[in-house]
Design brief:
This protein is α+β, with helices and mostly antiparallel strands. Helices cover 49% and strands 15% of the residues. The longest helix is centred in the N-terminal third of the chain and has 23 residues.
């Protein structure tokens, strides 16, 4: 409507490294019974600014990561503890299962699969400047005592309850990572021979 259009202000001439932009302000969501409600867009434009190209790319990457996290939560509405707590719990439970129920070569496969999960807390502790062997050992002890939400706390440099620290992550991220990594390993194991070719 004309009244709605008059509420919108346009400011011209704001300079950017790539030229000038038009800033539109005063856009409000129309009322429920307004005819403009049905055509009101549900999109947003984000201008990312930085002092140099590197800062700009880093800000863009962080913004993309945040959008991917929101997408994962919307797609599968479930959160799990962060700090590599799920990976440690899977490694312990899978290792226990391999010792008690698996037979033959399946035992070695399951143990190796379980050990691969411990790479996540090890790498997380190493990147945080901590002692990875000590951290992983502490995590295993905590999970063996039933503290399934304990993970690597990079701020305190020890293992703490990630849910209490409000460090969580979307379930879909961990499930997708495990699934893709497993499929990749299965594909590699199916290769019988490699035949080099020349162009």
């Amino acid at each position: 409507s004309d009244v709605y259009k008059r509420q919108i202000n346009a400011e011209y001439g704001e300079s950017t490294p790539s030229g000038k932009i038009v800033r539109v302000t005063g856009v409000h969501t129309p009322a429920e019974n307004s005819p403009a409600r049905s055509i009101f867009g549900k999109t947003v434009t984000v201008f990312i600014r930085g002092t140099n190209e590197m800062m700009l790319e880093e800000a863009k990457r962080s913004f993309d990561d945040a959008l991917c996290v929101i997408r994962s939560i919307v797609k599968k509405r479930a959160l799990i503890a962060g700090g590599a707590a799920p990976e440690v719990e899977i490694a312990i439970k899978l290792g226990k299962y391999s010792r008690q129920h698996a037979e033959g070569y399946q035992t070695f496969c399951m143990r190796s699969y379980a050990d691969a999960f411990e790479v996540v807390p090890y790498t997380l502790a190493e990147n945080a400047g901590l002692q990875p062997i000590n951290i992983v050992t502490e995590l295993r002890n905590c999970h063996a005592q039933g503290n399934v939400n304990f993970g690597v706390n990079v701020r305190r440099g020890c293992a703490t309850d990630m849910v209490a620290e409000k460090v969580v992550q979307p379930l879909l991220v961990s499930v997708s990572a495990v699934k893709l990594a497993t499929e990749c390993v299965m594909m590699i194991l199916k290769i019988d021979d490699v035949i080099p070719t020349r162009n």
